[in-house]
Amino acid sequence: MLPSFVDCPAGNEKGSFIALDLGGTNFRVLLVSLDDTGLAKIEKSRKFVIPISVTTGEGEALFNFIAASIRDFLFDQALASHYKSLGFTFSFPVTQSSVNSGRLLTWTKGFTATGVVGCDVVQLLTEALHRYHLDNIHITALVNDTVGTLLAKSYEIANCDVGVIFGTGTNGCYRERVSSISAVPTSSAIDGHMIVNTEWGNFNCLPMNKFDRVLDEMSKNPGKQQMEKMISGMYLGQLVRQVIIDQIHDTGLFSGEFSIFTAADLQTHDISNFQSDTSADLVIIKAWLDNLGITHSSVKERADIRQICQYVSERAAKISAAAISAVVLRMDPQLECHHTIAVDGTLYAKYPDFKQTIIKTLQALHGVASRRFSLTQSTDGSGVGAAIAAAVASQP
Length: 396
Ligand code: GLC
Hints:
Layout: E1 2-3, E2 15-22, E3 26-34, E4 40-49, H1 52-55, H2 59-76, E5 84-90, E6 94-98, E7 101-104, H3 121-131, E8 137-143, H4 145-156, E9 160-166, E10 170-177, E11 193-197, H5 210-218, H6 226-231, H7 236-251, H8 268-275, H9 283-291, H10 299-331, E12 339-344, H11 346-350, H12 354-366, E13 373-377, H13 381-394
Parallel strand pairs: 2-5, 5-8, 9-12, 12-13
Antiparallel strand pairs: 1-11, 2-3, 3-4, 6-7, 9-10, 10-11
Helix pairs in contact: 2-3, 4-13, 5-7, 7-8, 7-10, 8-10, 10-12
Alpha-D-glucopyranose (GLC) is lined by residues 23, 91-93, 108-109, 144-146, 165, 167, 169-171, 199, 201, 228.
């Protein structure tokens, strides 16, 4: 549970801001303008693909890559000489003592860049900006992607008080009374409310089955992010792979023959395609198997694969609903108020039935009171939210 040192915007923030969105292998730089009526507009944006050698290499190279991308973006937009306030969405667990500083607690989602854990990422980026002669850029806010997502939606909708990501990773944040946050020193001048990043992906108390255990042991961070490993896009394909391998050995699926089936052969976007395959012969699954050299699969075997995908993704969506429910009950145990939950991430936006299963599970958990929950997509929330954080932080 990590305090963010930022609260939801009033809706009247104004100006144009540079936003950075770093959370996976794609990194985005945006120019966002805010009018004072709750409208945020992305004026320009550019996506950069960070090579895996950079996300797993030296920290300095990672921050140089980010600074070079900002420089390229600003030159493209002829903005390089302007003074700019920058909001930085950094989608990893960071411990903050102010809105414009934060130390990385640990990497998640496969990042391992050295020399960053324990350091202030705002300082590391400021130093890299200096190396690239971008001293006119001032980092005024550092936020998690969940916080950015909540900020972006609450700029337009006042009762939005939860931000959630179902993407490569998963996490949620919510609005809390500062007096209830023990991690914020009582001497702190901050009053009222603050957004808290729960880092629920690292909730490690759920029962694990044998597939979860194998996946965890094979991961770059065994023993950590166990709920994330049951829910998010980085892992669902691998969980399905574990179950299929087990079925090959135990029940003789594909006559026990499937030796060339590697991790790269089954990603979450593949299982998402399998689940949307409604053809009688399951042609998408057949094409995938044919490609792997399994040309004699039966329709029944293909249906089994589809069923496995369904079990794994349904469990993911049900746990996701339970997480949302727990956070809302923390704020409002009797469900007396309406809560808008801003959600971003490809899994939520694209995976077949994911959203519907979350809604059905909330109904099963809360009956008619589930009407108190409304899930709303916050596309680009983590990018826009960085700009809003910069605006909130720049207010006198
Ligand atoms: C991981 C990160 C978390 C982030 C989430 C979604 O769980 O630890 O900070 O919010 O992924 O991107």
